[in-house]
Design brief:
Length: about 425
């Protein structure tokens, strides 16, 4: 099979899987808006950075370990088989810490994220429930990444879509017929990774499976080696959390809770866009890692070109769709018909989404650097995108032009990062000639 056909197979299936996750996020927000109005959306938006941190850690360990597994397997190294069990052990150890936080201090966590007394009380049960299931969220990333890297992208996609469909259906059942409110939404979300794990785990019973669970003492050295290659995946997830946290505090200071609710609308659609680009990046990763392990650099370069081109086309389509349908998209989550919230969200959508003309290239580029073993370059570019540029731009632009400056800080930071990313990738390609 040609490199292009392989790319299309892996990337399209991974995009569909990531879109499944996006659909349940949108459905979750829609149902919460119906059940709890703008306060419910505010709770969800304040909780999103916690989700992002959980997903980021799981993604870093899962994608990083699976990438190391794919490279070493291509090089016929026997140590490749130890990375799976090592990843499983560490996500459970880390996940239990979040579980304990959910048991004892869920309200304190929401207060730390900027919730006032009313919002913290409303979201306490929601936060407690999803934190209890943290180990399963993280393990889902590990198993999905390894199954995808073991030449089973279709099964990984099926697991993700099944979990997402379960979440959407039971969101409705728990929140409305059973009248469980926000806690019902949390229960549906918490159970969905269990469904995905069960489906993906059928791969381990098949004849084509090359993944083995080798019980050994957990190795911090192997974890570190994995995390070096998973840093792009980590920042890809955590950057949304960092952006959300910084924006929440800035917006609270500028216009209060109604502004945070408006940003909740923008952030949820932005998560869909980011998920699509993560689908391109993570779909291309197994191929880039395998060809890099074999030393086939022409194929590696072709995968980069295909990834960058795909990201560019998707970026343009996203901006066109948002500008054509802004009113309709905002109205989906404005169940209370708040004029002020609609006004803030309308402007925010149009200004914020300009950033996705550059964000796709940055996400795909960082994933490519990690997939080909360039951990330092991936770290630098990812940190620039996920932390340095977005924080600096948001603080400066918010101080100069207020709320519109907050929205514009995302495209500004992505543009700055794109310049750096292009320079790093060009330099790397010249060295490989």
């Amino acid at each position: 099979m040609s490199v292009t056909k392989q790319f299309i197979r892996y990337v399209t299936q991974n995009i569909f899987g990531m879109l499944g996750i996006s659909c349940y996020i949108i459905a979750d927000t829609f149902f919460i808006a119906k059940a709890a109005g703008t306060d419910g959306i505010t709770v969800l938006n304040l909780a999103l950075p916690i989700y992002n941190l959980i997903f980021a850690i799981g993604s870093m360990i899962g994608v990083g370990s699976a990438t190391r597994f794919a490279i070493l397997r291509a090089q016929k190294e026997e140590t490749a088989e130890y990375y799976f069990s090592n990843a499983i052990c560490f996500v459970w150890m880390i996940g239990i810490l979040f579980t304990l936080a959910g048991i004892f201090v869920p309200d304190k966590i929401l207060t730390l994220m900027g919730a006032d007394q009313t919002i913290a009380a409303l979201g306490q049960g929601y936060t407690r429930i999803f934190l209890l299931f943290t180990p399963f969220f993280m393990m889902n990333y590990v198993i999905g990444a390894f199954v995808r890297n073991d030449d089973a992208p279709s099964l990984a996609m099926a697991g993700t879509l099944a979990g997402s469909l379960f979440n959407i259906v039971f969101d409705y059942i728990f929140m409305f017929p059973l009248d469980l409110g926000l806690e019902g939404a949390a229960l549906a979300t918490a159970a969905s990774p269990v469904i995905s794990i069960l489906i993906c785990s059928t791969h381990f019973l098949g004849k084509k499976n090359t993944i083995r669970f080798r019980m050994r003492v957990p190795s911090v050295r192997r974890l570190w080696q994995s995390c070096q290659l998973g840093v792009a995946a980590f920042v890809g997830e955590i950057s949304s959390g960092v952006t959300t946290t910084v924006f929440n505090f800035l917006i609270l200071g500028l216009v209060g809770n109604i502004g945070v609710a408006a940003y909740g609308v923008v952030a949820n659609f932005a998560l869909v866009a980011t998920a699509i680009f993560n689908g391109v990046s993570q779909g291309a990763q197994p191929l880039a890692s395998a060809y890099y392990g074999k030393g086939d650099m022409p194929s590696v370069k072709k995968i980069l070109k295909l990834g960058a081109s795909t990201a560019a086309v998707i970026g343009v389509l996203l901006v066109v769709c948002v500008y054509a349908c802004t009113d309709s998209l905002v109205a989906v989550f404005n169940s209370e018909q708040s004029v002020k919230m609609a006004e803030y969200a309308y402007t925010g959508m149009r200004l914020y989404f300009i950033g996705f003309l550059f964000a796709g290239f940055n996400i795909v580029g960082a994933g490519f650097l990690s997939a080909t073993g360039r951990a330092r370059a991936a770290f630098v570019t990812s940190v620039m995108r996920g932390f340095v540029a977005i924080i600096a731009c948001s603080l400066v632009l918010a101080a100069i032009i207020g709320l519109n400056g907050v929205w514009l800080s995302f495209p500004a930071s992505e543009f700055i990062t794109a310049i750096l990313m292009a320079a790093v990738l060009y330099r790397g390609m010249r060295k490989e000639k």
